């Protein structure tokens, strides 16, 4: 096999690779939707305009359709990746804000993050109540603020 044929072959994507990529991106979209549901936020606060395509649709199918479209599909995918990135950055900023405001700074960071993310410990009732009354609302407010401030970074 000459080098030109080898280069062409190495550029081909296998159907399995493409499927794995689509599945991974779809899981990110579904995770973002789950975050909205668990925090009681409307999808419009979690997603930008691009969410409309995912309403009542399987994320895998939407992404696959976009891959088959030329220019518009590419723009949709670029927007989706920017939106997913903005979500991750807003989460990090929200966690940082909660951590900075935490009155219990003597606890190790891992323990504070477990509390913040709702993981249960031995005092589950007290922990859950604190999470629902204090942590979750503060996380939602910090997340929404971060998303609003970061919206100018999106295409």
Commentary on this structure:
By secondary structure, the chain is an all-alpha fold. 74% of the residues lie in helices and 0% in strands. It contains seven helices and no strands. Helix 4 crosses helix 5 and helix 5 crosses helix 7. The longest helix has 31 residues. The mean pLDDT is 76.
Number of helices, where a helix is a run of at least 4 consecutive DSSP H or I residues: 7
Low-confidence stretches: none
What percentage of the residues does DSSP assign to strands (E)? Answer: under 5%
Distance between the termini: 43 Å
Q: Overall mean pLDDT score?
A: 76
Structure summary, number of beta strands: 0
Estimate percent helicity: over 70%
Main sheet specs? none
The ordered H/E elements are HHHHHHH
Structural class, please?
A: mainly alpha
Gross morphology: elongated
Rg, rounded, reads: 20 Å
Annotate the secondary structure layout.
Elements: H1 3-11, H2 15-39, H3 43-46, H4 59-68, H5 71-101, H6 109-116, H7 124-150
Helix pairs in contact: 2-4, 4-5, 5-7
Short précis:
With 155 residues, this protein is mainly alpha-helical.
List keywords for this structure.
single chain; 155 residues; mainly alpha; 0% strand; elongated
């Amino acid at each position: 096999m000459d080098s030109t044929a080898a280069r062409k072959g190495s550029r081909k994507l296998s159907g399995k690779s493409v499927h794995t990529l689509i599945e991974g991106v779809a899981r990110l979209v579904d995770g973002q939707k789950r975050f909205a549901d668990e925090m009681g936020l409307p999808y419009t606060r979690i997603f930008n305009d691009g969410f409309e395509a995912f309403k009542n649709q399987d994320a895998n199918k939407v992404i696959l359709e976009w891959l088959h479209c030329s220019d518009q599909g590419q723009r949709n995918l670029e927007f989706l990746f920017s939106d997913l990135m903005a979500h991750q950055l807003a989460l990090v900023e929200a966690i940082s804000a909660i951590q900075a405001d935490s009155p219990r700074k003597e606890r190790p960071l891992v323990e504070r993050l477990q509390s913040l993310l709702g993981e249960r410990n031995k005092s589950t009732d007290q922990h859950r109540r604190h999470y629902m009354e204090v942590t979750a609302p503060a996380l939602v407010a910090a997340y929404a603020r971060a998303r609003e401030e970061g919206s100018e970074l999106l295409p």
